[in-house]
Amino acid sequence: MQIKNPPLIFQVVGYKNSGKTTLMERLISYLSSKELQVGTLKHHGHGGEPASVKETDSSKHLQAGSSISAVQGERELHITVKDTTSFELDELLQFYTVLPLDILLIEGYKKADYPKIVILKDEKDMALLELSNIIAVGCWNEVLAENSDYYTFPLQKTEENLPALIACMVGRQLNEN
Amino acid sequence: MQIKNPPLIFQVVGYKNSGKTTLMERLISYLSSKELQVGTLKHHGHGGEPASVKETDSSKHLQAGSSISAVQGERELHITVKDTTSFELDELLQFYTVLPLDILLIEGYKKADYPKIVILKDEKDMALLELSNIIAVGCWNEVLAENSDYYTFPLQKTEENLPALIACMVGRQLNEN
């Protein structure tokens, strides 16, 4: 194992229940089927914590006062970090430098400035087109992106548009580097 | 937030059900009550995985093929890393460099070479005294460590021995640095 070059980083943003996680899954499956190492980060949003691991030795460590606690099992490593509200996104991304990733996909974090795919579900989502660094737009209704200058694809047909979408994502970043 | 000097690293080792997690909890509580930033790592041992977070978006990302997936909630960050069996302990410890920790406590990983507290429960545990870099011995039966050259404390009285134990741990490392 060794640290590769920093991975290419992309975001998938959209309002709640617009289909972000499904698009993430499609992208991850496609990229990892091409033997690329993919990492992902998701913002859980407001109103609660991600499903936590309760009553484990790791949670005992955390309750006793540790700031970061991890458990290594036979196949997976689980790490929990407390009090991350003050962390900037770039600080969180430092956890990903330990692995030799090719691509890092971020679900959410609208205000971050990484190249992003925006999901438009209906008219009221159009404000998302004001976000920075948009490289592609996924639409549930193609009328929404009719006058868009971005690469646009219908979310009903994500599967068949994946190669073109990824070419658009990667081409854009390679041009910038 | 900034990266401090590397934290002092200690291990707590002992056979199954010898009281490792309880000693870890006591150490974490004491150290964090002194305003020290503590991180912890535990080896789950064989025969299963740590309690996992199922049916979450993070697990969806992992199932789709990502190597590392994280979810940031309002208070906690949960990171899951797949296929860590090939990781050396030192590679796992890289995840801890992101936080400004003072002390990193490792539960298990007997064969690692960090300064360690060994727990002796009964006669058959004496083989643990052959491990490298022992700095203290916690005993359920004081007869077990009668002829030991190490700092020894009875695990029935961990609480009152904590200040001396920690002085022994930290003093040892400071002398070496």
Keywords:
P-loop_NTPase (chains A, B); homodimer; two-stranded antiparallel ribbon; globular; Molybdopterin-guanine dinucleotide biosynthesis protein B (chains A, B); alpha/beta; Rossmann fold; six-stranded parallel beta sheet; MGD_biosynthesis_adapter (chains A, B); 177 residues; 4 helices
Describe this structure in words.
Chains A, B: Residues 9-138 form the Molybdopterin-guanine dinucleotide biosynthesis protein B (MobB) domain. Chains A, B: It holds the Pfam family MobB. The structure is a homodimer of 177-residue chains. Chain A is α/β, with parallel strands linked by helices and 177 residues long. Chain A has helices spanning 20-33, 57-64, 89-92, 158-176, and strands spanning 8-13, 38-43, 68-72, 76-82, 103-107, 116-120, 134-139, 151-154. Chain A has one domain: P-loop containing nucleotide triphosphate hydrolases (Rossmann fold). Helices cover 25% and strands 25% of the residues of chain A. In chain A, the strands form 2 sheets. The first copy, chain A, has a 6-stranded parallel β-sheet with strand order 2-5-1-6-7-8, with helices on one face. The two termini of chain A are 25 Å apart. At the A-B interface, helix 1, strand 2, helix 2, strand 3 and strand 4 of A face helix 1, strand 2, helix 2, strand 3 and strand 4 of B.
In short:
Chains A, B: Residues 9-138 form the Molybdopterin-guanine dinucleotide biosynthesis protein B (MobB) domain. The structure is a homodimer of 177-residue chains. Chain A has 177 residues and is α/β, with parallel strands linked by helices.
